[in-house]
Amino acid sequence: MFNFSSRELAIQYAGILSNIQEILESREFYWDLTEIKSFWNSEDDGARVYAKLADAWSYPATVKPMGLKRFKPWYRRVTAETKGKVIELNPKFMNRDHADQANTLVHEWLHTRGYGHIYNNRTKHPIILKSVPYVVGNLVETLYRKNYE
Asked: What are phi and psi of 78, to 5 degrees?
C-alpha cells in the first residue's frame, strides 16, 4: 500500500501499517464500509469502495516528508497532501497518535486511488466530511482505537 522514501520512515510506520492492513482485512471494517449507501462527491457506494480497497497492496503510493514548503503560511495547518501517487507528510504533524496517523495515511492513499473532496477546509465546507477519504479514514481510525489502543 505504501513505499517510504527512507528506511527510517518505513521503520517508524511499520507497526501502523501492519495494523492498517489488519483493519482493512477485518470483517468489522467490511461490514461497516459496505453498509454505506453513498458518499459525497463519489458515485461509488461502500461496497464498491471496499472492492477497490481489496487490491490496495497492489497500488502503492510513495510516502515522504513534506520538505521546506511546510514553512509557507498555507502549509502551517496542512497535515499531508497528495500529488499523483506521492503522499507528503508534514513533519510538524507526524508525532500524533497512531490511530490519527493511520487515518491520515488511508485518507491520503484514497486520494491516490482517485477519491477526492474538492474543497480542503472542513470548517467552511463540512460536506467534505462525507467524502470517501474522510469517511474511510475515520472508520480506520475508529477501529484502530478500538483494537490497538
From this structure: -85, 125
